[in-house]
Amino acid sequence: MTLFLDLNHSVGDFNLALKFQVPNGVSALFGRSGAGKTTLVNAVAGLITPQKGRIEIAGRAVFDAGRGLNIPPHQRGIGYVFQDPRLFPHMSVQRNLNYGRRPACSFEIDANLIVDILGLEKLLDRRPDTLSGGEKQRVAIARALLSNPDLLLLDEPLAALDRARKLEILSYLERLRDELRLPMLYVSHSVPELARLATDIVVMDAGKLVACGPASDLLSDPSLVPQLGLAAAGASVLARLTAQSEDGLSTLNTSAGQLFLPRIEAPLGSRVRVRILAQDVMISVQKPEQISALNILPCHIISLRPGDGPGMIVELNSGNDRLLARITARSAQRLRLQPDLACYAIVKTLSIRPAEVAI
Amino acid sequence: MPLFGLAPTEWQAVQLSLLVAFWASLLSLPLAVLVAYALARWQFWGRQLLNICVHLPLILPPVVTGYVLLLVFGQTASVGRFLNNTFGIVLAFRWTGAVLAAAVMAFPLMVRAIRLAIEAVDPKLEQAATTLGAGPIRVFLTITVPMMAPGLVAGVVLAFAKAMGEFGATITFVANIPGQTQTLPSAIYAFLQVPGGDASAVRLLVLSVFISVLALALSEWMARRVVHGTGQ
Among the three residues A187, A218, A249, which one is the final residue of a domain in this structure? Predict the structure, then answer.
C-alpha cells in the first residue's frame, strides 16, 4: 500500500473529510476546483496540519492526530511538484537538481537516467529565469525525483503549460511511471491526462470522497459521468500494435477485433491503451457494410443510463473491454436498445486524437 | 607623521569612529536578523510591543536614548554594576559604550531594511526546499539568506552610516573624551566650541564626506556582486 489517508480538516466553511487508501502506482486525485485537492496534497506533504486524522506513506505513519504524531515535511520522504515550478532563482539548474539529493544514496545512474528522460542535458548550466515554462516544470519534476522520494506528489503540474508541452511532459511522466515504477499522487482535472497516467483514481467533490478505485473501472463507470464531465466520458481499450500501413494508419488488435488508428509511433507489438470518448461512438444494431468508419466492434449492451438532457450513456461490453457510447434517448428508443442486446460500436478512425493514446 | 595633514586627536577620532561603526553594525547584525525574521514571519504575543521597542531609538530624541543607556548601563546602575562585577565590562564613558550607543541607534534602521528583505522572500520557495528534505536551518541558510542578501547588505551599510554619524546618544552616554570616546561627530562639535578650531572641523568634515562616499560606493559594489551572485 502506498498511501492511506483518513482526514478531517476545516478551513472556514470548507470541510475536508475523507478516508481512502490507494495501492502502488499512479493515483490520480480528481475533482473540480475547490474540491480540496491541493489541501489534501499539502496535508500529505506536511505543509498543513489537519485537525484530525491519520496519514500513512508506504506503510509509515507520518501524521496521527490521536497520537500527536506529525513528522515535518523534510522527513516525510515525499517529492512535491507544485503547480508553479518554484525553482530557486539564485541557483543554476544543476544546483537546483542537486538541492534535494541525498548523499547517502547511490544515485549516479538514476540521476543520469532522470536527466535523460526529462531531456535536461543542455539546461544544466542555465539559470531558472532563462528557461521556458515547460523547461522549468521539467526541472521541477527532475528536482523532486532526485530527492529519491517514496511518493511523488504532483499538483496539476501541467496546468500552466500549452498543449504541446503538456503532451511532451505527459509522455515523460509515463516513462517515469513505467521505467522507475515510482508511486505518484497526481492531481488533475483533466480526464485525458488521468486516462493516460493513472492506475487508480480518487474522485472527490466539496471535500468528500465520491469514488476510489482502479482507473479502468472508474473512467468507464457511467455513474461517474456527472463528475468526470460529459465531454470527457469514455472508456479505455487495451490493444496491441500489429501493423503500420503506408496510408498513415496503424492496426491494433483488441479483444473484440481490429482497430485502425492514425499512425502511432511505437514498435510493433507494443501494448497501447486507447481511450475512446463516449461521444465518438455510434451504435448500430446491424453490421453496417457500406460506411466510411473503419472501426466496427461487436458488442453487448450492459446498461443504459438516461442523462438530464436529451442524451444518454450506453455501457457496452466489447470483448474484454468496456466502451461507453453517448447517443440520444430518441435513437435508443427507435433502435429498441436494451441490456444484453447484441450490437455494433462504430468509431471513426480520425476521431481518436493522439492525446488519447497511451503507449 | 600626520596623515592627510590631520592632528593626532583628529586622526584618533576618525579611527575611533570607524572602529565603533564597524563593531556596532557587526554585533547588532545577528540580533537584527532574528528580530526582523520574528517580526516578518512569526505571529506571537507581544509582536507589536517588540516592534515599538525596536523603533523607539528612531523616534526618541537621541539624548533621551543616551540618558536611558546611562541609567541602565552606568557604573552605579544595576545592569552596569552587574556587567562590571561579573565580566569586568564597563560601558559608560568607554569606547565600548560608544559601540553600544551606536548599535542601539542604528538597530531600527537595520531591522527595517532586513525585515523588508525577508518579507520579499517567497515562502513558497522555502516550502519547496522543505519538501526536498531540507530542515529549517538549511532552508534559512540556503534559500532565505541568499534571497534576502541585497537587503542584508543594505541594512548593514545603513547601520554603519548611522553609527558613523551618531552624536546625541553617544555624547550623553560616553561623553567626549579625546582619544577615548571622541568620535568624528563629537570631535567636530568640540572643535567648533573652541576659537581657532574651524580648520580642524573643516578637515574632519571633508574626511567624513570622503568616508561616506567610499562606504556608499562599497555597498553599491557589494550589492551588485550579491545580486549577480544570486542571478537576479
Answer: A218
pLDDT, tens only, A338-356: 999 999 999 999 888 777 7
Instruction: Assess whether A194 and A146 both reside in one domain.
Output: yes
Q: Does the predicted model carry a pTM greater than 0.80?
A: no
Any idea what the CATH number is for the domain that residue A10 is in?
3.40.50.300
Closest CA in chain B for residue A126: B231
How would you classify the pairing of strands A249-254 and A200-205? unpaired
Which residue, A183, A218, A253, sits at the end of a domain?
Answer: A218
**Could you tell me how many CB contacts below 8 A there are between chain A and chain B?**
66
> Per the CB < 8 Å rule, is B130 touching A47?
yes
Buried b (16+ CB within 10 A) or exposed e, B212-227: eeebeeebeebbeebe
**Angle, helix B145-165 to helix B95-119, in steps of 10 degrees:** 140
Asked if the C-beta of A145 comes within 8 angstroms of chain B's C-beta atoms, the answer is: no
Domain that holds residue A239: 234-358
Cα–Cα distance list, B109 to B57, B113, B118, B164 (Å): 10, 6, 14, 14
Q: Is residue A229 part of a domain?
A: no
Sheet holding A257-262, edge to edge: A257-262, A249-254, A234-244, A271-277, A357-358
Confidence at residue A312, expressed as pLDDT on a 0 to 100 scale: 87
Q: Do A84 and B124 touch (CB under 8 A)?
A: yes
H or E stretch at A254: strand A249-254
Task: Read off the pLDDT of residues A42-88 as tens digits, 9 standing for 90 and up.
Answer: 999 999 999 999 999 888 899 998 899 999 999 998 999 998 899 99
| A72 near B CB under 8 A | yes
Report the DSSP pairing between strands A234-244 and A311-318.
Answer: unpaired
Residue A307 pLDDT exceeds 90:
no
Whether residue A248 sits in one domain with residue A191: no
Q: Compute how many other C-beta atoms are within 10 angstroms of the C-beta atom of residue A125.
A: 9
Probe site for chain B from A76, A82, A86 (most B CB atoms < 10 A): A86
Torsion of CA B134, B138, B144, B149, to 10 degrees: -140
Judged by a CB distance cut-off of 8 A, whether residue A79 touches chain B is yes
